Amino acid sequence: MNVLIVYAHPEPQSLNGSLRDFSVQRLEAAGHEVQVSDLYAMQWKATLDANDSTAQPGDRFNPSLDSQQAFAQGLQSKDIELEQEKLLWADTVILQFPLWWFSMPAILKGWVERVYAYGFAYGVGEHSDVRWGDRYGEGTLAGKRAMLIVTTGGWESHYAQRGINGPIDDILFPIQHGILHYPGFEVLPPFVLYRTGRVDEARFAEACNALGQRLDELEQTSPIPFRRQNAGEYEIPALTLKPDIAPGCKGFSAHIE
Amino acid sequence: MNVLIVYAHPEPQSLNGSLRDFSVQRLEAAGHEVQVSDLYAMQWKATLDANDSTAQPGDRFNPSLDSQQAFAQGLQSKDIELEQEKLLWADTVILQFPLWWFSMPAILKGWVERVYAYGFAYGVGEHSDVRWGDRYGEGTLAGKRAMLIVTTGGWESHYAQRGINGPIDDILFPIQHGILHYPGFEVLPPFVLYRTGRVDEARFAEACNALGQRLDELEQTSPIPFRRQNAGEYEIPALTLKPDIAPGCKGFSAHIE
């Protein structure tokens, strides 16, 4: 299987760097092909702007429309094109990052914004009052799997159902559902390592053990059962759950079967 | 009052640009002092890295510890220092941005990561088994107010309680609670403008009317009643809600009184 790891940590000699190296070795030892997009090492351009297209600049930069035009006409920056090729090559995509301020680092957010072009990751398929595009379960990346590897300084209890930071599944929902399920990925449960300030050799070995098992089972693990937009459960174009689907449920969890 | 608008859109001649201009005029006409950090115009460096400190680079870059050292010893990059000064100057801080992939644009996320230094926005106060820092309602920015101005391409129903994207309040929770309440801000309800692809003159006038009213009432509006970490409602150090606080409630909303 082809695995792409998109990795966002500034220091190779860090816990994240060690986990990344471990993952690459484990996957390669199992016979997989692995590519790593090491965003800091690549000096990835984090900011989406008019320079993302090689077209002559117009009067006004429009993030969506300019992206659409650049994608359709082959005018995207080379760095964007290369990442899209890696996504198409991959069977499984892993995003690995430290949780900074309850989301991904800016450099990875900028990877999403720039690589997820209009026509590639959104604006795909028919958009009308009866069909709202190929998204949330359908799209360019359908049939592929994705998984997050996340580290946090906070404790597991801080991210529990009644923990002060909010439940980790809810914090990750905009990424897992809004960024990964959206263009079609099947999303596996995340691998989260908490309390990174206190990782000694024993805890690191334990973490590698648990992570290794998750990597060994990438092809068998059941994905999070996010609902599919176009499977009859949502009103279109309001895109609210139909009254008979999970009646009384609301919030993020209503979108998981 | 002193108002800082941190603004993240690449095109001045956009809906966001027009709303920004409107806000500045409205606030100045009411006698407030206004500063705008226009991140794209400033070519804000989005990526947190070892160059954020003028100290001699060590063997390994440690995002928190290097930030702590740079802040404590006056070795931060000038651009970071200037933004911290603006935050200290402001009575109210407005973050204005288009919702991209269910969060803030990378350039604004990078502003948070770099400006929110260890010792400034986190790692403030006593950290022990009985006290977990001055945060979530206390901290350097306590006594100040903050508000989001957000635009989305999607419809309001897509962000409703049973809307496919998830409720807007939950999508914004990691920002409003995790980034604004955390260092002490009182957070006002957000101003959200939906369906930006369909803003004609009439809807723009309506939006300005509604936004203008919110700006006129900045000092009177009741903040979102996020719970305070150190007010006796959380177990320390587990930082879970005590059993008698909102029993049975879980998820983001449990942290709102």
Question: Can you describe this structure?
Answer:
Chains A, B: Residues 1-215 form the Flavodoxin-like fold domain. Chains A, B: It comes from Serratia liquefaciens. Chains A, B: InterPro entries: Flavodoxin_fold (IPR003680), Flavoprotein-like_sf (IPR029039), NAD(P)H_dehydrogenase_qn (IPR051545). The structure is a homodimer of 257-residue chains. The first copy, chain A, has 257 residues and is α/β, with parallel strands linked by helices. Chain A contains 7 helices and 6 strands, in the order βαβααβαβαββαα. Chain A has helices at residues 15-29, 63-72, 78-89, 106-115, 168-181, 201-216, 229-233; strands at residues 2-7, 33-38, 92-98, 145-151, 186-187, 191-193. In chain A, strands 1, 2, 3, 4, 5 and 6 form a 6-stranded parallel beta sheet that branches. The longest helix of chain A is centred in the last third of the chain and has 16 residues, at 201-216. The two termini of chain A are 28 Å apart. At the A-B interface, helix 4 and helix 5 of A face helix 4 and helix 5 of B.
Separation of termini of chain A? Answer: 28 Å
- Count of DSSP H/I helices of chain A: 7
What is the structural class of chain A?
alpha/beta
Proportion of beta-strand residues of chain A: 5-15%
Please outline the major beta sheet of chain A: 6 strands, parallel
Low-confidence stretches of chain A: none
> What is the average per-residue confidence, as pLDDT of chain A, rounded to a whole number?
97
- Tally the beta strands of chain A: 6
Helix content of chain A: 25-40%
Instruction: Please name the two chains that share the biggest interface, counting residues whose Cβ lies under 8 Å from a Cβ on the partner chain.
Output: A-B, 65 and 65 residues
Quaternary state, please? homodimer
Tell me the radius of gyration of chain A: 19 Å
Order of helices and strands of chain A: EHEHHEHEHEEHH
Principal-axes geometry of chain A comes out as globular
